[in-house]
Amino acid sequence: MKSRNSNKQSGMTLVEVLATTVLVSIVLIFISSLLIFIQKQFSTQKTDIKQLHDVTYVSQVVLKDIRKSDKRPVKTGNRVEIGENIYIHDRENNTVRRNNTMISDEIVTFNIEMERETNAVHLLLISTSKQTVETTIMLRGDNDDEEIET
């Protein structure tokens, strides 16, 4: 005796295979798009962090030199003398050099100003991605020392 279900075949129909293929393709496209987005975000954040680090490092070095120096900073154009150290900002290449050694290649603005009345030095640094460090340091001593030229 033969059973009635002997003519039925097991397996998937062509429609089921196509539907599965479409769903898997959609999921793979979504996952690859997500991975590309994450990679771009990582790259952007890595650049921003590097520039923030550069700006912070330059500010720390400059402030350390100002604190160590007996003289006030002297500014002439893109050159600033702080004690024995000379800083040069190259606006075209966005570099800052200290004693002819490059300490950053991401600085768009390097500005040091002396305020004679309060004996304060204002420092402003801005990176190429607009990361900004702005600080003021109060100098000790009288106001009759060398002053910064602007």
Relevant terms:
150 residues; alpha+beta; 5-stranded antiparallel beta sheet; 3-stranded antiparallel beta sheet; 1 helix; 8 strands; rod-shaped
What low-confidence regions span 5 or more consecutive residues with pLDDT below 50? 143-150
Described by strand count, sense and barrel closure, the largest sheet is: 5 strands, antiparallel
Number of helices: 1
Helix-and-strand structural type: alpha+beta
| Rg for CA atoms | 31 Å
Strand content: 25-35%
Helical proportion, percent range: 25-40%
Measure the end-to-end span.
Answer: 109 Å
Say what oligomer this is: single chain
Domains (count): 1
Rounded mean pLDDT score? 86
Order of the strands making up the biggest sheet: 1-2-3-4-5
What this model shows, in words?
With 150 residues, the chain is α+β, with helices and mostly antiparallel strands. The chain has one domain. The chain is built from 1 helix and 8 strands. A hairpin with a 2-residue loop joins β1 and β2 (79-82). The model is unreliable at 143-150 (pLDDT under 50).
Secondary structure: elements and pairs:
Blueprint: H1 14-68, E1 74-76, E2 79-82, E3 85-90, E4 95-98, E5 101-104, E6 107-115, E7 120-127, E8 132-138
Antiparallel strand pairs: 1-2, 2-3, 3-4, 4-5, 6-7, 7-8
